[in-house]
Amino acid sequence: MELGRSTTGERAFNWGNAVLLTVFALLCVYPFWYILILSLNEGRDTSMGGIYWLPRVFTFDNYRVMFSDMTILNAFWITVQRTVIGTAGSLLITSFVAFALSRRELPGRQPLLFVFLIVMLFSGGLIPYYIQLMNMHLINNFWVYVIPSLFSVWNMFVMKTSFQNTIPESVVESVKLDGGGYMRIYFHIVLPFSMPLFAALGLFTAVGQWNDWFTGAFFVNDIQLQPLPTYLQRMLSTIEASQVISTSQMTTINQTRLYNPDAITPKSVRMATIMITVLPILVVYPFVQRFFVKGVLIGSVKE
C-alpha cells in the first residue's frame, strides 16, 4: 500500500463522518431557522400549522410590534451598555484578583482562597442581597447591572489556575530583574499570554449579561432603565393579556395602533422576540470562536 493514500475503509469512514456531522449541524441550525420563518409569517396563518421551511404569508408585523415605539430601543441600548461595561469591568477586576492570588508570595493567600470558595458555594439569599443593594443605593439604578457582577469567583479560580500554569515563572522573574512591577507584569506578560482565556470567559460573561432579565425585573421599577430581556418579557405578558380584553381597553393602553390583531398572535410575537434577543450574540460569536476552544483548555496542561 502506498503511503499517503487512504484505504477504502478510511474513505468510507470519512464520508460517513461528514454525513453524520452535516446532519448534526442541520439539526442544530434548524431550530433557529424555524423561529426565523415563524417570526416573518403572519401569526394567524402560523396557527394553522404546516410551516416548516419558508414563510407562507410574509410580514414584518411581528417586528413592528417590537419596534413601534422608542421604549424598546432604549431597552436595547441599556442592554448593550450593561453588556459592554459589565463584561469589560468583570474581566478586568476578576483578572486583577486572580493574578494577585496566583502569586505565591501574596500574604494570606490560602485563607483568602478559602474565603472565596465559601462565598462561591454558599449564598446569603435574595433578601439580604436586596437589602445590600438598597444600602448601596443601587435599586432603580443603572449600575445595579454592573457593580454586583464586576467580580466572579468561578472565573477568578479559572484565571488563577491559568496564570499559574501558562505564565512562565522565568519570564516573571526577568521582568522583576529589569525593575518592572506587578502592573507591568500584568499588562505586558499576563494579558498577551491569556487573550484566548479572556475571549472565552468574556463570551460567557457577555451572554450572561445580555440574557439577564432577573435583575431588571426585581431590582428596577423604572421602565426607562429596564434591559431588553426584562422589557420583552413584560411586553409578551401584555400582548397575551390583550387577547382577552376589550377593544376599548386595548385603545387605552395604545395597543390597537401597534399591530393588526388578525395578523398577530402571542406565538408569532414570541418568535420575533427570541430572534431579537438571540441575534446579537450569534453575530458576535464567530469573532471569538477561534479563541474559544483554546481559551477553555488553556491552563489544563502544566509546563
From TrEMBL:
InterPro entries in UniProt: MetI-like (IPR000515), MetI-like_sf (IPR035906)
Organism: Paenibacillus glycanilyticus
Localization in the cell: Cell membrane
Keyword tags: Cell membrane, Membrane, Transmembrane, Transmembrane helix, Transport
Protein name: Maltose ABC transporter permease
Top-rank lineage group of the source organism: Bacteria
Bilayer topology annotation: Multi-pass membrane protein
Keyword Transport among record annotations: yes
Domain ABC transmembrane type-1 residue range list: 76-288
Record keyword Transmembrane present: yes
Transmembrane spans: 12-36, 75-100, 112-130, 142-159, 185-207, 269-288
Subcellular location, principal: membrane
CDD domains registered for this protein in UniProt: TM_PBP2 (cd06261)
